[in-house]
Amino acid sequence: MHGYAKDKEALTKRLHRIEGQVRGVENMIEEDRYCIDVLTQIAAVKTALEGVAAKVLEDHVTHCVAEALASGDAAVAGEKSEELLAAVQRFSRTR
Predict the structure, then answer these.
(1) What phi, psi does 30 have (nearest 5°)?
(2) What are phi and psi of 89, to 5 degrees?
(3) CATH code of the domain made up of 7-93
(4) Domain boundaries along the sequence of the chain
């Protein structure tokens, strides 16, 4: 089971709302809306996706990484720790 499993329904609903936001941006482009208005909506979509990513990362730490550390298996704990660091680095580069 993945760390986000308990939040799967809420995450899915949030992603559906974000999908609607993206369609709204597409409509704005099709309607030749003002550039700044389009950019404002794109920023809102990006912020929303970052929120989803932060929740998935949080769930990964509190479930997957914590479970690996508690297992006492140094190899598994090391693997999850490296995975976590790579995820944090990817996440922080997008900001």
Answers:
(1) -60, -30
(2) -65, -45
(3) 1.20.58.1000
(4) 7-93
In 35-67, which positions are buried (b, 16+ CB within 10 angstroms) versus exposed (e)? Answer: eeebeebeeebeebbeebeebbbebbeebbbee
Alpha-carbon 70 to chain mean position: 25
Query: 95: pLDDT confidence band, cut at 50, 70 and 90?
Result: low
Q: Look-up: residue for tokens 């989803």?
A: 52
Distance set, CA 22 to CA 18, 54, 77, 87 (Å): 6, 19, 38, 25
Pinpoint the alpha helices (H) of 1-95.
8-30, 35-59, 66-70, 74-93
Prediction pTM value: 0.84
CA distance 62 to 65: 6
CB 87 within 8 A of CB 65: no
